[in-house]
Amino acid sequence: MADLGRAALIVTFGLVLWATFAGAWAARLGRRRLADSAANALLAALVSTAVASLVLLAALVRHDFSFTYVADHTSTRLSRAYSVSAFWGGQEGSLLLWLLVLCAYAGAAVLLNRRRAPDVVAWTVPVLGAVASFFAFLLVAVASPFATQTAPAEGAGLNPSLQNPYMLAHPPLLYLGYVGLTVPFAFGMGALLAGRADERWIVATRRWTLVAWTALGVGQLLGAHWAYVEVGWGGFYAWDPVENAALMPWLAATAFLHSVMIQEKRGMLKVWNVLLVLLAFGLSLFGTFLTRSGVVNSIHSFTQSSIGPWFLGFICVVVAGSLALVFARLPLLRAKTRLESLVSREATFLYNNLLLVAFCLTVLWGVAFPMLSEAVRGEPRTLAGPYYNFFLRAFGLPLLLLMGIGPLVAWRRASLGSVGRTFLWPFAVSVAVGVALIAAGAGSSLPGLLAYTFSAFVLASIVLEFVRGTRAAGSFLQLVSRNRRRYGGYVVHAAIVLVAIGIAGSAYGSTREAKLRPGESMRVGGYTLTYRSLGDTRTAGAIERRARVDVYRGGDRVATVFPGKNAYFAEQQTSNEMAIYTSWPRAEDVDVIADQIDPATDVVYFKALVKPLVNFLWIGGAVFLFGSLIALWPDAREQRRLVARYALAHS
Amino acid sequence: MTVALLLGALLAAACVVLVALPFLREPAPRVDALPAPGELAQRQLELIEERDRALAALKELEFDHRTGKITDPDYRALVGEYRRRAALALRALEPRLEEHPRRVRARD
After folding, report:
1. Closest-CA distance of chain A to residue B14, Å
2. Residue A549: its pLDDT value, please?
3. Average pLDDT over residues B90-100
């Protein structure tokens, strides 16, 4: 069946090339049937890529080791779910997933918009086709998932750290995010190529951007939880280059989602918005390049390969070509209105954009620095945690504060008197919380204290917005249903506050390390951990060695946890299996890691961490998804308004 | 291998049909031009967007006033200007709006 997979990919490559060249030709000459044919080619490419994906999926599930990819990433001992997740566990499979998701996004976005904005879509199709052509070329000529061999008796298995339920959802969600950012980029470039400066490309893509942004956000939080429970070091984010690679496009897309509202409401920031979609898309390509090229040392770089130069070349072409196009269309993008006041909702959005982009670029500099230093000095120099933490505080804390300020300020211009009146309650709440925190001893960390005080300000301003809005609109449901984007956005703000609370909790944690024999104890953050015994369990794929540890607080045993290590047979690798006790009343976790185990003497070198408020991160993730769904929910009134707008324009 | 290649050929044929569909459906159409707004329609679209922006700004101002973000004196100072902008945007579209029903009737 590998031949069918190869044939399907060749068909896809031909189709997306047709979409690119025939599409560009049709758009240039204004040929309707040829433009429709190019759009149909994108839909057909979805079908043929789906066939190729099914072939690979079937081979993975059947453990058909005549496929080199299957033999390299699965074994007969691997469960069916993890065999399926091996689809994105390796380079060739994840490139195929990229292409599949891209074709799905492209087909859906083109189908839904070809009647509303035919002139823009005509140019969007070749842009989407060109991006798909690059990935199809890689899959056909450079990194085929359908290479075959004489089937070995057993496969190499899947990287043990990828054998975690989170790996079933985390990578596909990140891909939905990365690839989804192609849609606003393609429509933005399509509008510029068509010479259109109206809002249709924004109307066509805002939901797609929101979907991609949500997927990227949820995917990152799932990845953080995976790192927390699986990697076994007690943290959730390490400023790893590949983690940063997902954060950067998310920051750029966040900036875009805010600044695009200014274009919709005021007709301003047209150039800035186009540059932001280019930045977000370029960074999503850069993220894939980092993960797949092996140019950086990362726990996420599961593959080392030669596709790096291809990616780098493509990124250069995309960035240079897009910037040249934006430059050529500058007269078209000139705004007719100006910012009326520095004290207005628009101004707070602008400050938020500057901070988000500045933070994004400092992270980019941190990621690129080792590569640049190696190129210049011959040895890679890494910018470690303190660099990123400094900028997280420098940009993150003002951003947090702006989330509370923005909703309280009126659009266009606000007088200082009205601003003072609306700020009164949130300001009083935040001062009260700050004083209470200092009294409780939280002043030991100034960034932590500021984060919690600002969080209280933001939450108070969100509650105030809902209360005042409900009074003005008549009912809560009417308020939210009439402006889902705004109030869904406020729920997302609340989620970001919860995430900030979870991150700031790290400043108040405790860590202890100790070498213990059975029966010995160690103390950490008010808990006593007593190591009882060591035991082995043999499962289908590994030997699971676990230490039994009782957790006490105030003399009472509150839990028994089992930290240890797994030794995988097929993969010939060992993984650290951290144990977590969650105390919901105290809102903290106790993480126990069996760092080194001596099976001869049963001596274990333990590391224990108490992490206050860390679970706010995961609760924040659920609230984030809820808020995004509110914002994404279709608004029939708005749809009717847009239909009327474009019907009138096209009549 | 033969079955796989046969399936591949069938897939390719189906895709070619889908790509050729616009030409198969309309082998010789009267008009094959891409529907695109002309210069006038493009200007019209910009005016409609300006009108929508002006009306939305007026609604936002009312809502901000009702939720207490804008004081009464500020509201009185701003509302006149916003109404003027909305009226200008509507007036710019007036001839077009008058034309529209006539065109619909003509098509009927």
Report:
1. 8
2. 95
3. 66
Residue B50 resides in a domain: yes
Q: Which of B4, B14, B49 sits opposite A4 (nearest CB)?
A: B4
* Gap from A649 CA to chain B (nearest CA, Å): 5
Whether residue A634 sits in one domain with residue A596:
no
Question: Of A60-64, A411-415, A472-476, B98-102, where does the model show the most confidence?
Answer: A60-64
Contact A289, A99 (CB under 8 A): no
Question: Which residue of B1, B3, B70, B102 to mutate against A (max A Cβ within 10 Å)?
Answer: B70
- Strand-strand pairing, A542-553 and A564-568: antiparallel
Domain count, chain A: 2
Domain housing B77: 37-108
- The CA distance from B91 to the nearest CA of chain A, in Å, is 15
- pTM equals 0.90
Asked if A418 lies within 8 A of B70 by C-beta distance, the reply is: yes
A585: exposed, middle or buried (Cβ count in 10 Å: 0-12, 13-18, 19+): exposed
Q: Is the ipTM of this complex over 0.85?
A: no
Could you tell me if A42 and A168 lie in one domain?
yes
B48/A645 CB distance under 8 A: yes
Same domain, A50 and A98: yes
Residue A584: domain span: 508-615
Tens-place pLDDT, residues B9-66: 999 999 999 999 999 999 888 888 888 777 778 888 888 888 888 888 888 889 888 8
Q: In the numeric block, which tokens belong to residue A57?
A: 């999926």
Domain count for chain B, please give it: 1
Contact B60 A266 (CB under 8 A): no
Contact A400, A456 (CB under 8 A): no
